[in-house]
Predict the 3D structure of the following.
Amino acid sequence: MERTLSENESKVVLDLEWRGQKTVTLDEIQAALACSGGYARFMAHKLVKKGWLERLRPGLFQLVPAERGREGVADTNPLAAGAVLVSPYFFSFGTACTHHGLTEQVFSDVYLATPTRRRPQVVRGKRYVFVPVAKDRFFGFTEIKVLGATVQMATIERALVDAIDRPRYAGGIGEVSRIVARASGRVSWNALLEHLRRFDESALVQRLGYLLDLNRSEVPRETLAVLHDLVRPESKIVLGPRKKWGLHGPLSRAWNVIENVPREVLLAGDDKPKRRVTFAKRGER
């Protein structure tokens, strides 16, 4: 259908263009036209059919501005679409690790951190996963531009912490090991330590310390000293998820981590179970 506009359609589209508003709800259309809810839905349907609006989820639409031409080519930037699905939010986990060049893995899902609990949502064939994050942990992100869209993205330090904290959203523990190896030469150690203090989780520090050692990453002595201070003496953890990797393996005494994940997985970045390799004895470490 040709991208023409009736009088009422113009009121909606031109007002959005004038105010630089990228999305609109049914309630906002109803208020702009002083009409019934049924007519607002009818108007939204017409604007979608004509290519002026794109439906993102029930009751929420994204403007396809005039600059997109006669055909109304929609913005295909997956981050631009994700940025309007929930508020507040920031992209993190595998999505932010990809943005910062910490992983070569291609993620089919887009990961958003948000204090709002929501089920995954599919928009334009892309699945958006909303990872719940406590309000007191809603920090470590910044506003950036990606393909012309302004979005909230985790810093490299926050992306690293989130990947270690919940590996399932970053390709699994094998890929997280690779992420740690790449990040170690690029992060601000002071910023990373500040994040870890605010998270206040010994297990998080233990996994990070273990993976830094495993990948022979260069870490300032003072940073290592602080990391060890952040570990609770009584805390003994398993490296990978118990359901997948079990509870048994050699103990890395330096970080009090049970190595329940084969080293070939950690060093190859492949999180698929393989034949367990033979580890060195404790006294040979």
